[in-house]
């Protein structure tokens, strides 16, 4: 069973870096998806990131050894590969149908699913505080979707399809996150990621159209490169954060990602109105976004909050 190193400051910094990079990622992807299909974009992200990471590990003689994994570890590696591959592809299909802010907010279901998985895999408890956080999160979603709630509940239009696709992508991502955390007991975070990236690139190869890159304008080409590097740095930081900090605290920090996206979209729409459209959300929707983030953070931090409360009660009793 994986245990954190205890270097919480290091873990916090890496989690914040991940939130920042994930927050600005959908804005860049939205521009690239105007020309390239989601599977090809995903392949380029995996191939470039995996190749760079492979070159670094080969140069430093730290390539992963599969003999260390055993049968169980190899099964976890397969789950991690399939989980991240499905998440990447489905997320881009959903992003084609939604705004960046909406897509990132729906992803906040992920920490809740990660918590449920942790209850079974890591024997974590579901506390009263987490139940409150879950209720807050659901209320926040109700506020955020106040303009489209009837459409979501009564029809399967473009908007509803996009939301459901992102939900499916987030559900699959949970399997990746849980499997990856266990793989950290055998490999370093970079060794885990190089195997996942290159395996995903190989699996996608029969379905890609690499020459689509020639149709990108210079700006879109640079944005695609930025997306590839974002994949390398963000997921590397996420994997390393899990090595140094509890999964619940990492998840709570990542809850800030939608707020980063909303701020980034607003700034980009102001600076480059010809390229980026502002979010079409009313005031109640923005309040709902903040409530969702708060609820997601409480859900993730529930066990730590409960433990601190019990410790204080024990000290007072003495």
Task: Give a written overview of the molecule.
This protein has helices spanning 8-32, 38-59, 70-97, 100-106, 109-121, 128-144, 149-154, 158-183, 189-204, 218-244, 247-254, 257-271, 283-317. It has 318 residues and is mainly α. It starts with 7 loop residues before the first helix and ends with a helix. Helices cover 77% and strands 0% of the residues. The protein is globular and about 50 Å long.
Task: Please indicate the count of domains.
Answer: 1
Major beta sheet summary: none
Total beta strands: 0
Helix proportion: over 70%
In DSSP terms (H or I, runs of 4 or more residues), the helix count works out at 13
Average residue-wise pLDDT: 84
Low-confidence stretches: none
H and E order: HHHHHHHHHHHHH
Can I get a quick summary?
This protein is mainly α and 318 residues long. It has helices at residues 8-32, 38-59, 70-97, 100-106, 109-121, 128-144, 149-154, 158-183, 189-204, 218-244, 247-254, 257-271, 283-317. Helix 1 crosses helix 12, helix 2 packs across helix 9 (189-204) and helix 2 (38-59) crosses helix 10.
Annotate the secondary structure layout.
Elements: H1 8-32, H2 38-59, H3 70-97, H4 100-106, H5 109-121, H6 128-144, H7 149-154, H8 158-183, H9 189-204, H10 218-244, H11 247-254, H12 257-271, H13 283-317
Helix pairs in contact: 1-4, 1-10, 1-11, 1-12, 2-9, 2-10, 3-8, 3-9, 4-12, 5-8, 5-13, 6-13, 9-10, 11-13
């Amino acid at each position: 069973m994986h245990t954190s190193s205890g270097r919480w400051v290091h873990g916090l910094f890496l989690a914040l870096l991940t939130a920042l990079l994930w927050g600005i990622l959908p804005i860049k992807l939205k521009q690239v998806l105007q020309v390239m299909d989601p599977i090809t974009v995903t392949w380029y992200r995996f191939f470039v990131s995996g190749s760079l990471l492979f070159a670094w590990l080969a140069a430093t003689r730290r390539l992963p050894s599969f003999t260390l994994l055993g049968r169980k570890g190899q099964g976890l590696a397969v789950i991690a590969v399939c989980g991240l591959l499905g998440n990447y592809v489905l997320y881009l299909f959903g992003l084609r149908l939604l705004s960046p802010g909406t897509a990132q907010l729906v992803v906040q279901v992920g920490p809740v699913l990660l918590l449920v998985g942790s209850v079974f895999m890591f024997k974590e408890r579901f506390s009263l505080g987490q139940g409150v956080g879950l209720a807050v999160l659901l209320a926040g979603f109700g506020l955020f979707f106040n303009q489209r709630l009837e459409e979501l509940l009564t029809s399967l239009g473009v908007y509803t399809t996009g939301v459901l696709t992102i939900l499916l992508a987030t559900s699959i991502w949970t399997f990746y996150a849980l499997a990856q955390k266990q793989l950290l007991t055998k490999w370093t975070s970079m060794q885990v990621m190089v195997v996942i990236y290159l395996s995903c690139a190989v699996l996608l190869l029969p379905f890609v159209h690499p020459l689509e890159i020639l149709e990108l304008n210079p700006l879109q080409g640079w944005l695609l490169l930025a997306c590839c590097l974002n994949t390398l740095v963000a997921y590397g930081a996420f994997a390393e954060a899990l090595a140094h900090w509890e999964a619940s605290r990492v998840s709570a920090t990542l809850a800030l990602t939608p707020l980063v996206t909303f701020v980034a979209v607003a700034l980009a729409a102001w600076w480059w109105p010809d390229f980026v459209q502002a979010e079409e959300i009313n005031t109640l929707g923005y309040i709902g976004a903040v409530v969702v983030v708060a609820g997601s953070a409480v859900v993730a931090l529930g066990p730590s909050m409960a433990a601190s409360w019990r410790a204080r009660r024990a000290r007072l009793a003495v």
